[in-house]
Fold these 3 entries.
Entry 1:
Amino acid sequence: MKAYDALADWFEYLNDDCGYESWSQYFIEGLHRLNAGKCGLELGCGSGAFARALTRAGYEMSGADLSARMLTKAEALARAEGLNIPYFQADAASFSTLKRYDFLLAPNDVYNYVPKKKLPAAFRHAAKCLKEGGIFWFDVSSPRKLCEKVADTISADDRDEVTYLSFNRRTGDEIEMEVTLFVKRQDGAYDRFDERHIQYIHGEEELAAALDEAGFCLLAAEGHLGAPKEGSDRLQFICRKKARS
């Protein structure tokens, strides 16, 4: 199966310990502080947790993701909350939009799925979808996390309805994840689903250089939820699109 096909129905459930509420509030407060405007796009939105939270806070959000199954789940969850959020399919490495947004959010490892050689072009595409002065805010899993906590390990989460297993192997700057889900049926038996994910290790300096080349001014690079970068599992990059000279 394609990455996130089977995981789509279970992604937010299995990530219920990631602190979506405080993470969303971190974005809301930061966007307000930056006077970022109200019209935003969540790229790599998955099932749309952040897009829904920002919409509830008064922002005019859209969402985009490569996975059609994730988008189906996002649309269902938005409808269940009575929220009108447009979603569309897009690849972070090559997407384009006719609309120009005030800000672009790409949280939760979106650019870890983009190979190094495609990063400069990916950031140029991000710049093109923003108005001048627009905010580009994304994160990556830090090299320390991927190399020391994820590489060559097994991750597991065993619950009543679903069991998640990920066998992780590092090769060069790639982390390959062989993911297996066992999903319980009504008759008590389990269905098995297998997916393969690849994340790429990106360092702060190479990301900063690619951002500058794409026409962004790096306003801040910080750890998760604004914590110090050193020792953080996640690095946040907050950027502004440069004005044309």
Entry 2:
Amino acid sequence: MNHLVVCGLNYHSSPIAIRERFIIPTSCLKHALHALARMPHIKEAAVVSTCNRTEVYALVSDVQAGLQEIESFFLSTQAVADHGALRPNFKLLREDVVLHLFRVASGLDSMVLGEGQIMAQVKDAHQAALEAGTAGPFLDQLFKTALNCGKRVRTETSMGRRAVSISSAAVELGRELLGPLAEKNIVVVGAGKMGKVLLKHLLSEGGNGPVVVLNRSVEKLGSLANGDLPNAHRIKTSFTMDDLPQLAANADVVFVSTSAPQFLLNGKDLLAQKSKSNLCVIDISVPRNVNPDIAEIEGVRSFHADDLVAIVNKNMAEREALVAEAEEIVFDSLEGFNGWQRSLLVVPTITELRQKIESIRLAQMAKSQSTGTESDDMRDKMEDISRNIINQILHHPTVQLKATTDYGVLRQQAEALRLLFNLTVSEPMASGHHYATQSSGSSCPFSDSGKQIDEALKDFSDRLKKAWLSFK
């Protein structure tokens, strides 16, 4: 039997100095997924790697061995090879994994409650696992349901209308430190998704203060002024990354948001310039792109992603009301996913049972017809009667299986049917639940419900035998 697990770390359990060591760049994600798939106990795998978390979702044949393999995967990555003492410190099993991913996709587990980017990041993780061939039917359904849950939270609650992002929180922090930014001299490093969101919030104030945008890819800079950003006349793109130290030294605030794996701004580079007396640097990149040593320079205040907690925790009463509203959708989605899991047992078992009984019926009908003693009318009546007998006797077990919500009881019922009728239905892909195994001292592997099914099926067999004998 396979089990669902998640293993990794996130902002709840690890500061940015550790999280950044575990980041898996997009360019490396396919190789990382293939490395996970080669582990003997990992059957399916997907990786969600963002500034706030790096989490491996996996379907494993053995929980302990699977978690150990995921740990060894983390420790073998180049980013953490020199930090052997570091370990992923976040682990969940079975249904807790499902709930966690649903809350992540809904923005309920984000540093900034309801932030909008996480949906796209979960979608990218799902797509990457599908393209790498490491997401099988189970993880595919799990991520599809999670994305649908996130979409419902944003469209059916006020969460979407109140959603913010790390980028907008960074701009809010800048305003708290410096006041209105409309006339400030601003430098933005990075023109990716987060950088564009940041620019949109910065430029919404209007004003005429210059906003210098730097990016490693010049092509992205060309589209900024012609895009849908407000007050685009403030944007200046005629500089290169080499100009960053000088531009930063003369700025009021520098926002940094790139996916570069190294520091782009260092204290020694800034010291070489004639810096203003009051510079604010806000780095929301993970891994960090600003060397912490710049905070040692007089007049420079430096902040990173984890420093946004104060912004995030404002108006908690209002936020908690939003969470309660969204959690109802999360648990509704959980029930839907559990229903899908139950169908992995119910549908194949019912189908196989009906096929088995139908094959017996057809075989007996063929024997009856081979005697040649029945008329066409009699054969038609036998056909109708035999079908009605099967439908009526299978009706109760079918309804009971479909109505059972306890996965443990359902599994026992399905196992009883497979055993009694020698069915060849394969084991379900995974379970989101944990059950205690039957003790060795027990005389029966089935619960009371299993015994009821046993008795019902014996009665079914007896009635079927008597019905066929009546035609002879």
Entry 3:
Amino acid sequence: MISKERVYKALRKKEGNPDRVPIQFDLCRQLTETFGKKLGIVPDYALSYYEDLTYRISANEIRTRMGSDVVVVGGTVPSGYAPEPVTGSITMNEFGMHMMPTPLYVEVIKCPLENASALSDIENYRFPDSYAPGRFEKAKRDIDRFGKDFFVIGDVEISIFEMAWHLTGLEKYMISMMCEEPWLTLLDDRVEEWSTGLALQLVKAGVDAIWLGEDLGSQTSTLISPDDWRARFKPRHKRMIDRLRTENPDLIVIMHSDGAVAPLIDDFIEIGVDVYNPVQPNVAGSDPRELKDKYGSRISFFGGIDQQELLPSGDTDRIRNEIKERINILGKDRGYLLAPAHILQADVSPETIEAMISASFEFGGY
């Protein structure tokens, strides 16, 4: 069974059981380089418009050779564009964010709208062009190369809330939201327009799924109240999903949010989300059996393998047991795409990753 059919059947978009539970994973740069050397493949990097998404949409050849059933594509910087040097390793991206590399991430250390206080500040801010030439050349090449055999996800994860607060800074955004600053609605409108443009182009390019989302949760609760999310952001995601489905009625929609966001799953289902990711373990409301029993007939799950403590521990027996358990629970009656709950970082050894993949094959059969 080819990977594309395996994922479609696992997500209940085609009749019948797959031969096994499918798997997806992402690699940080260090792990990408390590496995690239091992496989004799030069990594094919795609510089995302938002730097932290770069490794999500890069090195699809390496990941598929390792066993992934999925390739991930997304928007890059436009043709001929390079981030502007600021000082040392700090650069400014096309949004005007100052970005500083760290051992794990690229952090925003200066926000272009950190001093916004009026509608004119948003009106005068120049958003990048989501339709800029070259932004989807790499995505189209990967779709042409892998799309026949592998399930293709178009990545637009930083959709509205998270992109907006990266432009202002989280504290400023949250305070302005609570104070109901009128300029905030215009900012959210423009971010929604940006993200919709990105997603539409990926749908037109031929992806099987669109991966929307924000990080809406902490370890214990949502970052904003469920009622605030429903009032401010749910209608925007609904508009995006409806617009994308006018382009492709069969599009699979994935909603990503780290943290304790179980109170929003019913809302995700209501607006047309097919798949919930990353099913982060060890947070409130994340018990796999409770999630499967309550929501499993209405939504599929994508993720579920602990990236915070378990995979970095390298404890192969515990990793195998967790994978077996997740498959037995979340994979029952289909509805599960196995994956770590986060991009694999350098604190996870290559040997542990190989053991994770091997266990998913061993225990994943239907």
